[in-house]
Design goal:
38% of the residues lie in helices and 20% in strands. The protein has helices spanning 11-17, 46-62, 103-123, 147-159, 174-180, 192-211; strands at residues 28-37, 69-76, 80-82, 86-87, 127-136, 163-169, 184-188. Strands 1, 2, 3, 4, 5, 6 and 7 form a 7-stranded mixed sheet that branches. Helix 2 packs parallel to helix 6 and helix 3 (103-123) packs parallel to helix 4. The N and C termini lie far apart (37 Å). The relative contact order is 0.17. The mean pLDDT is 94.
């Protein structure tokens, strides 16, 4: 089945899960999807991860682009939980870890939710750019969706000129990110300082991409 044939949710469900048009002041919207690995291997870094997410939130909140940015957080361990697109001030920075790595489910479900909300905003006359970012320290080992499903989702995002970005924490997920077709991949070592640098780079990249007239693709992390 082609990705474009995946059944979408109804309009009421899309409106209920995300920020309503009435609450948006700008006609130029930047949608930021952040998929976060919460598997058991991240347990030693749980405190640093919470701090890094807080810094990410603060950087976007303090930027001049804050009013144009809506962020969706997805968490994946044994299952994938994809949240709606909300103002950055509503971004949840809490972090816990434990379980496996449902990365493929996150990519497939996250792409579906992004497509639905982006189409909804466009139908309301808004101009929309988007970034789809995944953070992971390992390979998928529990998803219901397979590698091919996730690859089709990333291919759809790339064809739609949506930024596909991947942070490989410790390098174990780098080959998977390459094979899936992510256009911008940031490799960092598995340490607290590298973790903070990674999310600092992500926030700067999101802000710079929000400023630009056209979304950055292969050079998203070059800031």
């Amino acid at each position: 089945m082609a990705y474009e044939e995946i059944e979408m949710d109804g309009l009421e469900d899309v409106e209920a899960a995300n920020t309503s048009v009435d609450e948006i002041d700008s006609e130029n919207i930047n949608l930021i999807f952040v998929g976060i690995d919460r598997s058991g291997s991240m347990y030693p870094f749980r405190g640093d991860m919470g701090k890094s997410l807080g810094d990410f939130k603060d950087a976007l909140t303090d930027s001049k682009e804050a009013d144009n940015i809506l962020v969706a957080r997805a968490d994946f361990a044994d299952t994938a939980v994809v949240g709606g697109y909300k103002r950055i001030t509503e971004f949840d920075t809490a972090y816990q870890s434990g379980g496996c790595t449902a990365m493929f489910d996150t990519i497939v479900d996250g792409t579906k939710k992004l497509r639905e909300y982006r189409d909804y905003l466009k139908n309301e006359g808004m101009r929309v750019k988007a970034v789809f970012a995944i953070f992971s320290d390992g390979e998928d080992n529990v998803s219901n969706n397979n590698f091919g499903d996730a690859k089709k989702a990333v291919e759809y995002l790339n064809n739609e000129e949506i930024v596909t970005a991947f942070i490989s924490f410790g390098g174990e997920a780098t080959q998977t990110a390459n094979d899936l077709g992510f256009r911008s991949i940031l490799n960092v070592n598995s340490s607290a300082s590298e973790l903070r640098k990674a999310f600092n780079c992500l926030s700067k990249s999101v802000i710079e991409n929000s400023k630009s007239a056209v979304s950055k693709q292969d050079d998203f992390f070059d800031v």
